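lol ok so funny story. i was supposed to be doing the assay writeup but got distracted and ended up predicting the structure for this chain instead. priorities right. anyway since i did it might as well share w the group, maybe its usefull for someone
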Amino acid sequence: MMEIKEYINILKKRFMIIFIITILSTVVSAIFSYLIIEPKYKADISVIIGKNENGQSTSYNYNDIMMYQKLVKTYSTIAVSRTVIEDVKDKLDLEYSVEEIKSMISATPEGDSQLLTLTVESDNAETAARIANQLAYSLKKTSKDYLNEDGVHILDDALVPTSPSSPKPVLNMLIAFFIGLMVSVGIAFLLEYLDNTVKTQEDVEKLIGVPVIGIIPMVEGEK
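and the output, tada:
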């Protein structure tokens, strides 16, 4: 029980250090999140990998489903290939380089399904949606040109995002608050551990190992 009281006393004694570091880290996080970090927007579009004959959907058997589930990973690689990206760049007349566009996009297979999600992240919401939609059409075109198969079917178009995907100011501030709190508490205990000065009766008893039987008060004399 005495140890808990000692910990509490240390926290009380170093309260200002803990308070200042915690608040400072939270304020810095808010400044970075709201004023410095440029907001990013994400637009998603979903495509289904499957076969289509003469413009009509055909029924699948088990082997077809298993085959196309495996092909989803292949198409996810094709989606970020130079051929597809160059087609996107040409169709939209983008000023970005191929490598810049590639860094903006990702293709993610959705579990054990035929669904492939194409995601584009940009500092402009409309640009993100435009690239995402064209990426799906360019992937469909590439499938026809190089694989001789209309195997990409667009499920829905990408919408213009209405809010940024990053940064997340509230989340960042909460994380900064708890990190600042933990760091400041650690500093408080470290300072207490490094402080070898004797200030209280309890410090004397710990130092010499015997109880204090009396205290001589300090009396200021005449100047």
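Residues 62 and 68 are 10 Å apart (CA to CA). Residues 169-194 form the longest helix (26 residues).
back to the writeup now i swear
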